[in-house]
Design goal:
Layout (H helix, E strand, L loop, with lengths): L1 H13 L16 E10 L7 E7 L15 E6 L3 E7 L5 E4 L9 E8 L2 E8 L6 E10 L5 E9 L7 E8 L2 E10 L7 E8 L7 E9 L1 H12 L21 E2 L8 E15 L2
Parallel strand pairs: 1-15
Antiparallel strand pairs: 1-2, 2-5, 3-4, 3-6, 4-5, 6-7, 7-14, 8-9, 9-12, 10-11, 10-13, 13-15
C-alpha cells in the first residue's frame, strides 16, 4: 500500500500538462459609449462625465481609451453642453450641465471621422423610504439581505435600475424592476451578500430609467454567469444599446446613453 501511495504522489508531482492555445476570432475594435447623465436628488447636477473606450481581445487585461473625440449633449435642440476630455483618459467632463426631468437630450460623439448619436429622456425617481436587514438569508442562512423600500407612483408606468455598492465586494450588484404588477405600492430593491458584515457601508442607488434601458439591462443581466443557469442556456450575444453610427451603420457602437434622476441611501450594516 505504501509503495502504491508513493507512485501515485510521484505521478501527481511529475505529470506534465499540455498548454493549449485557444485561437479566438478577432475583429476591428468598436467604440464603447458609457454615457450616463445622473442627477442625484438634492444636488445641482451640473457635473457630468462620459466615458469612451474601445473593445479589446478577450485575453487582454487593459481597456483601451477612445481619445481625441468630440463629445456634446444637446437639450431641446438649443442648449449645447460640451464635454472636454481629461488628458488622454477617454473620460469627458462637463461642469455646467443643466438637468431637467422629462426633458429630451441628444448625445453626439465624433470619433475618427464618424458620428455617433443617441437620444434619451431624463426620468424621475422616488426616494428610498427605508431599508430592512435580514442576517440569516440565502440558501446557506448566512447571507446578509437588504430590502430598500420605495413607493411607486400610482397610474404611471415606471422603470427602475438598482445599484448596490460595497467596498468589500469589488463588483456592484445590479438589477432592474418595473411596476407592471406593483403599480402604486410600496416595494423594494433586493440585495443579498455573504461577504458583508456589521459596520460595512452599502451605498444603495435607485435610478429612474426608460423602458428601453430597462429592456437593454434586463437582457444584459441575463447573460451574467450568476444568472445564466446551466450548459443548455442561450450563449451570450452582443446587446445593442440606443447609440448608432450615422456615418457608417455597419460599424455600430456598444454601450448606452442614459439620463436619470437618482435616489441614494447610505446604509451601515448592523
Amino acid at each position: 500500500m505504501k509503495r502504491f501511495l508513493y507512485i501515485l504522489v510521484a505521478l501527481l508531482v511529475f505529470t506534465c500538462e499540455d498548454v493549449i492555445d485557444v485561437d479566438l476570432n478577432t475583429a476591428e475594435p468598436r467604440l464603447v459609449i458609457d454615457a450616463s447623465l445622473n442627477w442625484f436628488k438634492g444636488t445641482v447636477g451640473n457635473e457630468q462625465e462620459i466615458r469612451l473606450s474601445l473593445t479589446a481581445p478577450f485575453f487582454d487585461d487593459d481597456v483601451p481609451a477612445a481619445t481625441g473625440a468630440q463629445v456634446r449633449v444637446i437639450k431641446n435642440s438649443d442648449d449645447v453642453f460640451i464635454f472636454t476630455e481629461e488628458g488622454n483618459s477617454g473620460i469627458y467632463r462637463n461642469s455646467n450641465f443643466i438637468p431637467q426631468l422629462d426633458e429630451t437630450y441628444e448625445l453626439e460623439v465624433i470619433y475618427e471621422g464618424e458620428t455617433y448619436i443617441a437620444t434619451e429622456t431624463m426620468k424621475s425617481v422616488v426616494p428610498i423610504d427605508f431599508v430592512e436587514q435580514e442576517n440569516e438569508g440565502g440558501f446557506s442562512g448566512e447571507d446578509t439581505e437588504l430590502k430598500a423600500y420605495y413607493t411607486d407612483p400610482a397610474n404611471i408606468e415606471n422603470y427602475y435600475f438598482f445599484e448596490f455598492i460595497n467596498e468589500v465586494v469589488p463588483v456592484p450588484s445590479l438589477d432592474v424592476y418595473d411596476d407592471e404588477f406593483t403599480d402604486g405600492n410600496q416595494i423594494f430593491g433586493f440585495y443579498s451578500e455573504d461577504d458583508v458584515g456589521p459596520g460595512d457601508i452599502v451605498t444603495i442607488r435607485n435610478y429612474g430609467i426608460s423602458q428601453r434601458f430597462y429592456e437593454f439591462m434586463f437582457i444584459l443581466l441575463q447573460q451574467n454567469p450568476e444568472d445564466g443557469g446551466g450548459p443548455f442556456e442561450t450563449q451570450p450575444a452582443t446587446v445593442r444599446g440606443n447609440c448608432q453610427n450615422i456615418t457608417n451603420p455597419d460599424n455600430f457602437p456598444l454601450g448606452y446613453f442614459r439620463a436619470s434622476e437618482v435616489a441614494e441611501f447610505i446604509y451601515t450594516v448592523q
